[in-house]
């Protein structure tokens, strides 16, 4: 049996191929080492923002309004992880306030099927971020919330009318937020929307 030895040219080609393959693998696999993976970071993948407040989880929270000094409707979702009912209170600009009741181990979606959570004054122009105070029980925090307007079709139905926020279900009034939870949602003609 005869062994064929590699000549210099063949060994050179093999070495160059190994270097090229190694460089290619390094350039492909090096991206994950240098750049952080986006899937390992939690973020709000929508127009709204997210926040956790005690046992409450706020998701996709935003304010929909026509102007800085006009009423603004809070939309998004609030999840209650605790075994007791909770009330999320949102305080905005110029003393504006709204309350959102959330049942134990449940969620409240602030959409067209729920009572409107209206702030009497938005506090910022559409396209800006406004700072609101959020509280539930003894937990409180500040949150930067985006203000959207009706230029996007999906938000047009959430634009509040110029009616007084005390006449709107879900807003804080002398009746208290718990009275609103048992009332049926107002129809658009009743609430002025």
Could you characterize the architecture of this molecule?
Strands 1, 2, 3, 4, 5, 6, 7, 8 and 9 form a nine-stranded mixed beta sheet that branches. The chain is built from four helices and nine strands, in the order αβββββββββααα. Helix content is 21%, strand content 32%. It has a domain of 133 residues: Immunoglobulin-like (Sandwich). The chain is an alpha+beta fold and 193 residues long. The C terminus is likely disordered. A hairpin with a 6-residue loop joins strand 2 and strand 3.
Terminal Cα separation, in Å?
Answer: 94 Å
CATH C-level of the domain at 49-181? Mainly Beta
Number of helices: 4
Radius of gyration: 28 Å
Helix content: 10-25%
What composes the largest sheet?
9 strands, mixed
Globular, elongated, flat, extended or rod-shaped: what is the shape?
Answer: elongated
Residue-averaged pLDDT: 79
What is the succession of H and E elements?
Answer: HEEEEEEEEEHHH
Q: What's the total number of strands? A: 9
CATH architecture of the domain at 49-181: Sandwich
Low-pLDDT windows of residues: 163-193
Structural class: alpha+beta
User: What is the third-level CATH name, the topology of the domain at 49-181?
Assistant: Immunoglobulin-like
> Which strand-content bin applies to the residues?
25-35%
């Amino acid at each position: 049996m005869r062994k064929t030895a590699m000549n210099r040219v063949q060994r050179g080609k093999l070495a160059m191929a190994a270097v090229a393959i190694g460089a290619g693998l390094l350039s492909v696999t090096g991206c994950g080492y240098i750049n952080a993976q986006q899937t390992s970071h939690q973020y709000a993948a929508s127009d709204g923002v997210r926040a956790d407040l005690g046992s409450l989880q706020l998701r996709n929270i935003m304010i929909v309004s026509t102007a800085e000094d006009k009423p603004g409707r809070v939309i998004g979702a609030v999840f209650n992880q605790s075994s007791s009912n909770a009330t999320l209170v949102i305080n905005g600009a110029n003393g504006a306030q709204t309350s959102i009741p959330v049942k134990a181990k449940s969620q409240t979606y602030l959409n067209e099927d729920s009572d409107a959570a209206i702030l009497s004054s938005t506090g910022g122009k559409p396209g800006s971020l406004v700072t609101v105070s959020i509280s539930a029980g003894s937990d409180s925090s500040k949150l930067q919330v985006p203000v959207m307007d009706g230029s996007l079709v999906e938000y047009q139905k959430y634009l509040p009318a110029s009616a007084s926020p005390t006449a709107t279900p879900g807003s804080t009034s002398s009746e208290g937020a718990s009275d609103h939870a048992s009332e049926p949602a107002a129809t658009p003609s009743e609430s002025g929307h």
